[in-house]
Please model this.
Amino acid sequence: MKKLIKSTAAAVAVSTALFAGAAQAQQKIGVVDMMEVFQQLPQREQISEQLQTEFQDRFEEMRQLEQKVQELRQKQERDASIMSASEKTQLERDLEQTISEAQLKSKALQEDTRRRQNEERNKLLGKVQDAITAVAEAKDYDMVLESNAVTYMKADNDLSGAVVEKMTSGN
Model:
């Protein structure tokens, strides 16, 4: 019985010492709103313009195919009464072929633009992560969380503005 009381007392003493130490060593935790950071970055607009330029020829090709489909449909409606059966059949085939070509090229263009957007977004995300690390180290934060993982925080723990500033200044 005495051993049980002594071991319990020792355990309480150790626990008290640990909790006291933990209370003194509070961690400094920052929060970053990633959506806000991305919306404020000028690099986002530059990337958008870069991708627009990169795919400009293909967008123009799609516009021309869509215009051709529209012209073929108009011709089909306008000239149906004066066309022979073979001309109607040929026009229908041309229309179907053009529609198929447009659909294939549109799908490929969407996939390529989505892939490139993801590549550029991931590059930018890496730079944002580096900026978050630099800001956290400069301000002596022990941990930084995304705002969507936090239910409450003090405004002075929000590092979003500092991260945007770091990204725009390049320092």
Remarks:
- Residues 85-138 form the longest helix (54 residues).
